[in-house]
Design brief:
The structure is a single chain. This protein is an alpha/beta fold. Helix content is 40%, strand content 22%. Strands 1, 2, 3, 4, 5, 6 and 7 form a seven-stranded mixed β-sheet that branches. Helix 3 (54-64) packs antiparallel against helix 4 and helix 5 runs antiparallel to helix 6. This is Lipoprotein. It comes from Chitinophaga chungangae.
Length: 223
Amino acid sequence: MRLPLLIFLTLAAACRQELKFEASDTGDARLDAYNDLLNEIVARRTYNIYLGEDEEKLFDLGIKDSAAARKEKVRLHNRLFGDTSRFWTLVLDTFRMPQLNDAETEQREYPDAAGRLFPLLDSISPDRQAVIDQLNTNMDEYPPAAFSLHTARTRPMEEARRRNEWIIGRLRLSRMVFNKRMDKALVFYEFKCGDLCGRKELLQLENKGKGWRITRSMSFAVY
């Protein structure tokens, strides 16, 4: 009975659909990390707005059948993958960054939050305040045109308005902070898709040789 069961499990795994991702490979390790991050944020943290007109249908389907909705999202995502003619625009807003408290204030005023925050900071460096200072700094290393996404495009607000493009929302990114081995990183972001639509999170990413992936998160707000 073991062989038929093994064959069944192998076929089931092969048939299981997943969101398509490809690790960035630009030759610039930091840019690759940002590209992989942005691809995950678009696919998993923008409320499916990047799917365009199909987002509303997917939402309605999710109310009736969540399993069917997950399967349909995979189909829609993978169909959109690489089809630049159908991309919506993610606006990169560098006007300001939401501020994290300094380490002492965090410990004194928000001990419960500090208990979740400090292990993330410590995974990068024992100098917590230095990590916080970087996370409180705008991502200024690359212009929007430098990023290469698989299911969306990035532009500054002025250009997106001039082109009259469909907008996913506005994204504010901190600088990404890496550990010494360059296999873990932290980044703080805020995504806004309306007055009552958006989120703020601190994300931990890891690279285990197959690109950067979000492995942990700490939510600061969900609108």
